[in-house]
């Protein structure tokens, strides 16, 4: 007998492919009409936005008229809270509505982590763009402003002073942020030397697998088409601190089963959490972790969502450094990059899930990983 699974997704093909590969599933989907063709053959209900929880509630009830699903899968960060609501409404195992808020609503997340003693950036919530100066009185300037719901560094801005904020607001610099129609998180700007991330797998409330990586350049200053980073030596003292911090974060948000993507700042007083997500990171991070440590974060994400056992390792941890870089889709670049010594894989836009060429490479140490990244950028016609 087939298991009924409800997927809340937009165009996240990694999850869809993994679910369709399981012959014992009856797949139901809540999505936007723009993505209807992706889910042909599935029982589907449509919403204008996953942030319209009233629409999500009605769609879930529509699809569950013949019985509730066994599992609910949130394939995108935008659908995490909506999926939590559906689980709570229908009595389905997994993250509840409150637990989903702790992993997706940035102010609720920071409140939860701070209460658990986890070092986080100081923040306050503004009701709108024009409310930002009031919120910044609580955090102090300079600040970073971003939507309380959102993935990666989209619609995120550094602002140095009230005067700069007013000038840029009048110039329309924050119009895309205002158009989101959700509150704005105002964070005190953190002074940091480097930015890191930790990507893990949690089962039965215990971190079973985790890897700490460092960005080559700060994501907020880096266009997505050239984003890059590398998996660190996990015995490095700072990596050990981040791994312990990751364990505390997973416990604080009461994550029982799932994957994590934790963003961390390296500061003079130690690691400070930026935010956490309960989905794999983007821009090639899951593939990089797979090359470095032998586990597939998207596969683990689906396994955890379906209540399946932990997946097998494809290989032992690779010695040295494993790095990744996104590059613009220059004709012939994929083939030229694949010929560079140390390159493990060069993926085209059709393979990597982005509009970029995605390259994964190995090196004996960090300086030579930096050199490999520089050479790949040169092949793409970019400056070092």
From TrEMBL:
Keyword ATP-binding set for record: yes
Residue segments, region Disordered: 363-384
Bias kind Basic and acidic residues: ranges: 367-378
All residue ranges annotated as the ATP-grasp domain in the record: 110-306
Gene3D superfamilies registered for this protein in UniProt: 3.40.50.20, ATP-grasp fold, A domain (3.30.1490.20), ATP-grasp fold, B domain (3.30.470.20)
GO MF term (any one): ATP binding
Annotated TM spans: none
Keyword Chloroplast included in the entry's annotation: no
Keywords: ATP-binding, Ligase, Nucleotide-binding
Domain of life assignment: Bacteria
Name listed for the protein in its UniProt record: ATP-grasp domain-containing protein
